[in-house]
Specification:
Helix content is 37%, strand content 16%. By secondary structure, it is α/β, with parallel strands linked by helices. The chain folds into two domains: 2-119 and 306-370, 3-Layer(aba) Sandwich (Rossmann fold); 131-299, 3-Layer(aba) Sandwich (Rossmann fold), CATH 3.40.50.720. The strands form two sheets. Strands 3-2-1-4-5-6-14-15 form an eight-stranded mixed β-sheet, with helices on both faces. Strands 9-8-7-10-11-13-12 form a seven-stranded mixed β-sheet, sandwiched between helices. The mean pLDDT is 97.
Length: 371
């Protein structure tokens, strides 16, 4: 199979779909890889690193899209990239279509085979291709929140850890999944007063055991959620409903009741956000203030630590990319039900129920298209 790696063009996105070591694995299996010039230079992988393992460098994205049978990216294709996709061409990347009707329509129009990292599952019901970036985003959320709390950024001027004789900040984490757990690890390590909210009792038991009293683990009833949010110095939105738009759990009314200079980091913003006052921001302009509360809502948080993120992502995605390349997309999807769950759009049809429901578009059973 001919595989193409374009340079990411989203704001301040320096990750790359395949690092040189991953390209080497694909070429060793007999595949051909085209890489857009400087695709990995933002994280220290130069064109020579790719040619040394057998890849061919192309001068621009149009050439890559024109020649590749499968495009491997990191972030969702931007409008100009959607326009370069062709019928039956495979795109394997994060898509996050539930809150993005424009991209959904563009991918339907393209006729491409669109496989989303974030909806691929495993035998335990987990999301293995989302997990590494959730780990990064969770850990980064505390770092971003600490900056948002600085007085120079409009925050209250509270230090997360406190100091001798001064109490630490209160960090409230909504959601105890991969993002929430990783956020809690960093916040607890810094010495903050940490509260984790979730509705899954088994998740709460696991978190209680893991943190052994170093974090308060609470069931997220509406009243408890409100009480914890309005008394927090920093709120981390770590809610995920796979394939769907995130529920708006933190309301405008709660924001108005929060302490002046408190901060929110909405990690769920790439799925629409779990905070009613949240809208996506960029690394160039990451924060804004609503009702005296600092909001950090960058939709590609892991892009700020692009080298670590790209390597972690490749560790997870490479086996799936190899399977698709080795078998072809139809056979790969038909023999692997978990990879099949990653198929969001195929030949102009929406093949994931959650996406269809989000946009009120007809759902098509992928098996009818593949067999």
């Amino acid at each position: 199979m001919i595989i193409g790696i374009p340079k990411e063009i989203k704001n301040n996105e320096y990750r790359v779909g395949l690092v040189p070591s991953s390209v080497a694995e694909l070429i060793a299996k007999g595949h051909q890889v085209f890489v857009e010039t400087h695709a990995g230079s933002g994280i220290g992988f130069e064109d020579e690193d790719y040619t040394n393992v057998g890849a061919e460098i192309l001068p621009n994205a149009a050439c890559v899209f024109d020649q590749a049978q499968m495009i491997v990216k990191v972030k969702e294709p931007q409008a100009i990239e959607c326009a370069m996709l062709s019928a039956n061409q495979i795109i394997f990347t994060y898509l996050h279509l539930a809150p993005d009707l424009a991209q959904t329509q563009a991918l339907i129009k393209s006729g491409a085979i669109c496989i989303a990292y974030e909806t691929v599952t495993d035998n335990l019901g987990h999301l293995p291709l989302l997990t590494p970036m959730s780990e990064v985003a969770g850990r980064m959320s505390i770092q971003a929140g600490a900056c948002a709390l600085q007085k120079s950024n409009g925050g209250s001027g509270v230090l997360l850890s406190g100091v001798t004789g001064v109490e630490p900040a209160k960090v409230v984490i909504i959601g105890g999944g991969i993002v929430g757990m990783n956020a809690a690890q960093i916040a607890v390590g810094l010495g903050a007063n940490v509260v984790i909210l979730d509705r899954n009792m088994e998740t709460l038991r696991q978190l209680d055991h893991q943190f052994f009293g170093r974090a308060n683990v609470l069931y997220s009833s509406q009243e408890t959620l409100k009480e914890q949010v309005i008394t927090a110095d920093l709120v981390i939105g770590a809610v995920l409903v796979p394939g769907k738009t995130a529920p708006k759990l933190v309301t405008k009314e709660m924001i108005k009741l929060m302490k002046k200079g408190s901060a929110i980091v909405d990690v769920a913003i790439d799925q629409g956000g779990c905070v009613e006052t949240a809208h996506a921001t960029t690394h160039d302009d990451p924060i804004y203030i609503v009702d005296n509360v600092v909001h950090y809502c960058v939709a590609n948080m892991p892009g700020a630590v692009a080298k670590t993120s790209a390597q972690a992502l490749n560790n997870a995605t490479l086996p799936y990319a190899l399977k698709i390349a080795n078998l072809g997309y139809k056979a790969a999807l038909l023999i692997d039900k978990h990879l099949m769950n990653g198929l969001n759009i195929c030949n102009g049809k929406v093949t994931l129920k959650e996406i269809a429901e989000s946009h009120d578009i007809e759902f098509t059973d992928p098996l009818t298209l593949l067999k």
